[in-house]
Amino acid sequence: MKKFTWGLALFVITVNLSAHHPDFSGVWQTTYGTLTLVQNGNEVKGWYNLSGISTIQGTIDDQGKLNFTYQEPFASGEGWFELSDDQMTFQGQWHEQNSIQWYSWEGIRSEQRSDLKWLVILESEWQQSLSESEYSFGEMLDAFLSRIASLNIRHRFIHNDQDLFKYCLEASSLPGEIYLIIATHGDKDGLIAGDGLINAQQIVRAIEPIGNLHLIHFSSCNIMGGSIPDEILNSRSEWPGEFIVSGYTKDIDWGGSAVIEFFYLDMIFDKNLTPQQAAQAVLDDIRFAGTNSTEWMDNCGFKYFKPH
What is the pTM of this model? Predict the structure, then answer.
């Protein structure tokens, strides 16, 4: 009986130790530039930019070592990382496929700033030809919100899913809370950028590296009428605090969307409401925002989803 009890206790201890893995997730400044890692249990994936976007895929073993393979645009290979006791640095090595020469790869965890907020606006050109004047919704938002000294704004143009992924990966390394606005033509199946469609799977892939993502707002028609919000929310088991996905279920009036979004973002960044509170304020305070039309404005179908 005593022998059986000891064996059971030893078994429990072994399971608990092996179930605990060091935390590699986060943004790292490394020998080869910024590296973003996402961890799920003992599985780790990551991205860095070396001659183009490069990827890491690996597994943490029972000793806490991350063994990985990497893929760069013109090379591939394998390596390993080990965290320091305080999990603020790592040491490791890598070698290229078909080579026996190993090289050092070291990193230090980037500082995260809870006091910083970043509004990242990714926009596709709206005009289709030279017959149309150039205009940008993102530039209007930038001009309106630049008065808020505590807010950092980045505005870029995207033309395809590779651009979307590139800028989202760069956003993942910004030290603070990330609020993402995607402004393009759209329908319930995805974003229309350039000559192509950016579908739900490509959107989910693009935002995956952004760990501290507090809002995704689609300044696009119809996006909220399909499966994209649910696919985004189901792509992670945990989201930051008051995270939501917001946007429109139908074709919307330019003037109506401008009123909504100036109010919406002002509530978040100037009045310090959470995204959920601000989205509800839009529906409560702007009569045409949701499902009700007014004498001069059709309803805009504004909607938001929060994690289940």
Answer: 0.87
